[in-house]
Amino acid sequence: MGGSLNANHLMFLGQGALWTIGLSLIALIGGGLAGAVIALCRVSPSRFVRLLSGAYVQLIQGTPLLVIMFLTYFGLPTLGFSVSPLAAASASLTVYVGAYLGEIWRGCIQSVPRQQWEAAEGLALSRTQRMIKVILPQAVRIATPPTVGFMVQIIKNTSLASVVGFVELARSGQIINNSLFEPLLIYAIIAVIYFALCFPISRLSRKLEQRGGPARPKILAV
Amino acid sequence: MKLNLDFGVVLERWPAFLDGAVMTLQLAVIATLLGAAIGAVGAVCRRSRNRLAAGISDIYVETIRNTPLLVQIFLVYFGLASMGLKFSAFTVAAVALTINVGAYTTEIMRAGFDSIPRGQIEAAEGLALSRLQIYWHVVLWPAVERVYPALTSQFVLLMLASSVTSQISAEELTAVANYIQSDTYRAFETYILVAIAYIALSLIMRTGFWALGLVLFPRRRRLGTPL
Fold it and tell me: Keywords in UniProt for this one (chain A) (predicted)?
């Protein structure tokens, strides 16, 4: 205890913020890849694949991210796999983000008008060609605002990586607080940094949404 | 490598899990009810001509939606303590979750209010309904009916998010799991069981909301539009 907030502390927080950004990017890329696979599986012609991917989404969306984190970080080692905090956080976020993005993107793929499918079929395009050349380019445009909006959720959710000891923004705040014991000040600073990271993205998402176009799936999150 | 799973040791502790699940549900129900009330008021403020009320509501929604729940929980926890107020972890958790979900509910309700056509309100004015009557019968209920699916998903997410309150040792399901795994060294089994418990809780909540929807919105039931 003792001492006051100085430049070193702020540097440490800055470093934490950089890790928050880094972890968010890992989650976005990993979760994006997983989400793309899930979304395609969810609209697959095979009933089995649809059911399987649907079950995955239901299971992950019914489980808190915190529990997934604990399961990978504390659970896997008891089975004999050793996991670093960064690996545990990245894996959990990828699994979690994949389910949500997969569901958002499924909605976007399905909101491309039916006639587009039929017209592409009429042009004798194969299923893969229809998907790549006709449906996906339109779906990507529909998907942009909700995906940008979901990035805010990703940034906020990386704060849960602090519980497995990964030193991102929230955790670096806890560490500083342990030496200074000025919780209100420190958590307020952290909240401000998160806000500064998230607010511009929220605004961008809203702006993209207002640009009009077809109805889009609403993103929910805590 | 040989997998060596033993769910028995963990399952023996089922009364503790049950207590945790009950507390999780209590937190969810309290925050849902209070959050819905805040949402209804917040959405009215956001649309009101009073710029102060609209501004406050706007700042509240944006602040909460752009900061992590974990940080909000710590701020409420230490904020209340610094004012010299001593509350149980459960109360602090309930307060933090309510503040959080209130902001999301405000945003959803506002979208619902915006979806009510102006003509409906003008028609109600033409029928000489009072402002309160118009708000209640013409704006609030039809709006809630429209955004009911979004609202209920949000409340289920809130229940899942209540797991974060384990960090201030509110003894809900996740905190119980942390305790049991440190006691039995069966982390994998414990968290798998807790994940299943959460999935069950979200199914229970979804079913409950669906049934509630049938009771609350008989018009919709008659029309046969799914909730």
Answer: Cell membrane, Membrane, Transmembrane, Transmembrane helix, Transport
Chain A residues close to B157, C-beta within 8 Å = 220-222
Please report, rounded to a whole number, the percentage of residues in chain B having pLDDT higher than 70.
95
Q: Count CB neighbours of A145 within 10 A.
A: 21
Query: Any chain A CB within 8 A of the CB of B166?
Result: yes
Assess if residue B218 is contained within a domain: no
Specify if A147 maps to a domain: yes
Determine contact: A198 vs chain B, CB below 8 A: yes
> Domain residues for B59?
21-172
Q: How many contiguous H segments (helices) and E segments (strands) does chain B have? A: 11, 0
φ and ψ at residue A111, rounded to 5 degrees = -85, 0
Q: What is the mean pLDDT of residues A38-48?
A: 94
Which position has the token pair 């100085």? A6
Amino acid at site B191: Y
List the domain range (segments joined by +) for residue A194. 19-210
pLDDT for res B227: 56
Window 142-161 of A, Cβ < 8 Å to B: 152, 156-157, 159-160
Please check whether residue A127 is in contact with residue A57, taking contact to mean a CB–CB distance below 8 angstroms: no
Is residue A115 a contact partner of residue A130, using CB atoms and an 8 Å limit?
no
pLDDT over 80 at B3, yes or no: no
ipTM of the complex: 0.88
CATH number at residue A198: 1.10.3720.10
Q: How many CB atoms lie within 10 A of CB A80?
A: 10
Q: Is the pLDDT of residue A222 over 70?
A: no
What is the structure's pLDDT at A213? 52
CA gyration radius for chain A? 21
**Are B111 and B144 spatial neighbours (Cβ–Cβ below 8 Å)?**
no
